[in-house]
Amino acid sequence: MIIVSNRGPVTFSRSESGERRYSRGAGGLVTALNAVMRLSEGAVWVASARSEEDVEVARETRGFYREVEEGGGEGREGTLRVALVEHDERDYDLMYNHLANPLIWFVHHGLYDLPRSPNLGDDTRRAWEAYRRVNASFAETVSEVASGLGDDEPTVLVHDYHLYTTPGEVRERLGEGAFISFFLHIPWPEPDLWRVLPRYVREEVLASLLSSNVVAFHTRRYAEAFLATVREVPGAEVDHDRSVVRCGDREVWVRVYPISIDPEEFASFARSEAVIEEERRVRELPGKLLLRVDRMDLSKNIVRGFAAYERMFERHPETVGKVTFLAQLQPSRQEVPEYAAYAREIEAAARRVNDRYGTADWTPVRLAMEDNFVRSVAAYKNYDALLVNAVRDGMNLVAKEGAIVNERGGVLVLSEGAGAFEELREGAVPVSPFDLDEQADAIHRALTMPRKERERLAGTLRSRVLENTIEDWVRAQLADIETYRSGGSGY
Amino acid sequence: MIIVSNRGPVTFSRSESGERRYSRGAGGLVTALNAVMRLSEGAVWVASARSEEDVEVARETRGFYREVEEGGGEGREGTLRVALVEHDERDYDLMYNHLANPLIWFVHHGLYDLPRSPNLGDDTRRAWEAYRRVNASFAETVSEVASGLGDDEPTVLVHDYHLYTTPGEVRERLGEGAFISFFLHIPWPEPDLWRVLPRYVREEVLASLLSSNVVAFHTRRYAEAFLATVREVPGAEVDHDRSVVRCGDREVWVRVYPISIDPEEFASFARSEAVIEEERRVRELPGKLLLRVDRMDLSKNIVRGFAAYERMFERHPETVGKVTFLAQLQPSRQEVPEYAAYAREIEAAARRVNDRYGTADWTPVRLAMEDNFVRSVAAYKNYDALLVNAVRDGMNLVAKEGAIVNERGGVLVLSEGAGAFEELREGAVPVSPFDLDEQADAIHRALTMPRKERERLAGTLRSRVLENTIEDWVRAQLADIETYRSGGSGY
C-alpha cells in the first residue's frame, strides 16, 4: 500500500553538529494518515520534500523509501516508511500558492464574491501546468516505490486537493492493475460552483478522478455534489442508487467516510501536565466560557461569530458581564491579501464588542491570534459553549475534539455548513452561518440551557464521536477496498 | 385557466379629465405570458395592483375580472381578462424590496460575498411573513376568480420567485382538483447555495412548490439542481430518470421549457421607422461594433466585460482604434446600495479603458446608461459581436433577440453561466464568465472570424431560436398539462 499526500509525516533537518534529525508533522490530515499507516503493514508514505534536508533524503532514497523510527513512549512505536518527492521550487510555489490554496480552496468553500472575483486568465493556466507537473512527480515517485517494492498491483491512496491529477498520472504509469483511491478532505462544490474553475482544470481533474477506483468524501452531501458534477461528463454513467460511476470497463465507487479523531490519544493529551497547567489560566476568565478554535480562514465565519455575540448582549442584556468569548485563532496564509484583510476584519469586530461592552474588570472577547494547541485543549475542557459557525467546512474536527474532552457538559453550537453537521446535528444546537439573530439566540440558549438538557446533548455528541473514530474511518476504507478488489459490488 | 404573476399585462391610470386609461406592461415575462393568454381562450390573468388606479380596479372587480381591449393594429387584438390583487403597501414593500429582490435574487444568482453577506436575522423573518401575506392575497384572488368562473378544477399557472408560496395557498383553498403549475424564471440554486436562505424560507418554499403538479424551469441544469434540493426534503421521493417527485399521492413533474421570444413580432419591430432612424446613429460609431445590452445587475458581469475588452487591446494591439464597444445598460434598482455601488464600478471600468486607449476621434467604450429599447434593437441589427458574459442568468433573451434581427453575420460570445447556453452553445463562442483572457480572445475571435464561419454560426443561432419560439414554449406546457390531467405519465 502506498499513501500519497502533499504534507508528510516527518520533516528532516540537520543539527548544528551536522546530524540529521526529523520532526513529526502535525494537522488533522497527517494524524489521520498516521492511523492508516498503523493499520496497514508495510505501507509507504509518499509526500513532498519541504525542507532542504528533505530534498537530500529524497535524492538518497530515489526509487525506494526511507525508514523512520516512530515513537515517544506512547505505545505507537514502529517503523515509518517514507519516500519524499523533490519538486521544482517555482512549480511547487505555483501549485501551492497560486492554484491550490487560493483558487481551488476558494471555489470549493464558496468564498468568492463572484460578481468581482476571481479574475482568471493565462496566469491561471501557467499555474495549472505547474500543478500538473508537481502531480506528475508524485506519480513518478509512486511508480518507483511500487517497482522498488516489487508490487505490480499496489493499492495507492491519494489524498486531497493538491493532488487532483495524481490518480490519472498513476493510472497511466501502473495500468489497470493498480487500485487507486482518491480522498478529498474539503467540500466538493456543486456544479454551478465547480464551473468557476477554468474548463481545462475541470476536464483534467474529472478525467483523473474518474481513473480512480474509489473517490471518497467526508459527507453524503459532497458525494451527491460530485455525482451531480460527473453527470455532465460525456461517457460517465452515474448510477445514483449504488453511488457508482461507470466509465468504460471501470466502476468508480463514490464513497463517504467521515473523518474523525483518535479519542484515546486526544483524551490522554488532555490529561497531560501542560494542559492542566494551562487550564488554570483559562479558568480565571470571568463568567461562563464561550469558545471558538479555528484557523483564521474566511470559511470559518469568525467575524459573524463576534457580531452574533454582540447581538446576544442586545437581545439578552442580562448576559452582559456574565460570559467571556475566548477565540483561539491560528494565523494562516497571511501573505495572501484576502487573508490579511480578513484578519483585520476579525480584529475590528472583536474590538467593537470590547469597546462597546467591556469594563475595567471584564473583556467580553479574548482574541488570541496564536497557534497554541495546549491552550486550545485546556479551553476545550472548560467551555460552556463551543461555537462552530463555519460558512462551509470539510468536516471540522474542533467539534469532535471538544466533545471528547469537555468536562462541563458544554453545548456545541454547530453550523449546518460544517461537514460534521451530518453526524453531530442531534447533539448540537444547529445554526445557519448567515443568520446573526439565530446565532445570537443559539449561543444564549447554549449558555443558559438546564443542566439535564446540556448533559443529554453532550452525551449524544460524545457517543457519536466514539461510534466513528479515526480507526473506524480507516477500517471502513480498507474493508471497501478489499470488497472491490475481490469483485464485490459494494452498496 | 388562471395565470398568476406579480407584474401584470396592464397598469391603469386616470387622465386629467378623469378618464380611466391603461398602458401595456413590458419585460420578457409579460411578453411571454401574453403569448399564454393568446393561446388559452378565456384565461384570466391575476397580478398585483401597482398604481392607485389599479387599486380602484381591484376593488371594483373583486371576485371577478376586468376585460381590457387589446390591440394596436398588429393582429393581436382581443380581450384581456385581468384581476388585480390589492396588497398592504408595507407588506408589498417588504416582499418586493426586502425579500424577493435582494435576498432571493442574490441567492439564486450566487451574488453574495458569502464570508461577509448576507447578514440575516429577525428582519428577514418579518419580511418573510409579509411575503407570505402577499402570496396569500394572490391565492385569495385566484380562489375568487375560480369561483366567479364557476370552475372547480381550474388550471393555475403561477410565475416566478415573488410567488413561491402561492401554490401552497392555492392548493389549500382549492383542494386537489386544481391543477397548479409553478414556473421559475431565474436559476434554481444548488443545495449549498439554497441553504443560504433561512431554514423557514426553505421549508415553506419547498412545501409550497411540492404542492404543485408541475414545477418548471428554463434549463435542465436548474431542474437538476431542484431535484438535488428536493432529495433533502423528508417524504419527497425523487425519481431522477422520470424527473418526477412523488409526494404522498401526488406526482410533481419537474419540467424544462426554455423561454423564448416571438421572432416575427420582434423582426417586425426591428423593421419599424423608429429603429431604422436610430440605426443611422449606431452606424456612425467607428470601427467594428461590439455590443452588450443588459440591465445593470451584478449578475450580468459588466465590469469583467470591460476588463476583457481592455485585455484584448493588450493581447491584440492591432485591434486598437478598430472597434467600438457599445454598452446599452438599463439602470436598475439604484436605491439598493449593492446596485448603486455596482453602477459606480461600471462607470469606472469604462472610464479606465477610455482614458487609456481613447483618442480625439475614437471612444473605445460608449456607455449608454439608459432604457432605450429602440436603440438596442438598432444595435442588434448592426453588431459584429454580441457579448453575453453573465455570471449567472436565468435565460438571457438578448442572445435570442440579437440572433433573430442581426444583419451582419454577427457572432455571439456566450457565457456558460447563461441559461441560453444549453440551447445556443453550438452557435456561439463559449466563455467562462470568470476568465478575462479567454473573454478577450473570444471577443477578438468573434470580431476577426472569417465570413464563412461567422455566417455558419449565425445560421445555427437563428435556427436554434426559430426551433423554439415563445409559442412553442406555451404549447409544450399546455401539452404536458393535458397529458398530466388525462392521466398520462410524462417522460
TrEMBL record, chains A, B:
One of its GO terms (biological process) is trehalose biosynthetic process. It is an enzyme of class 2 (transferase). GO terms for molecular function: alpha,alpha-trehalose-phosphate synthase (UDP-forming) activity. InterPro entries: Glyco_trans_20 (IPR001830). SUPFAM superfamilies: UDP-Glycosyltransferase/glycogen phosphorylase (SSF53756). Keywords: Glycosyltransferase, Transferase. It comes from the Bacteria. Pfam families: Glyco_transf_20. Coiled coil: none annotated. Its EC number is 2.4.1.15. Belongs to the glycosyltransferase 20 family. This is Trehalose-6-phosphate synthase. It comes from Rubrobacter radiotolerans.
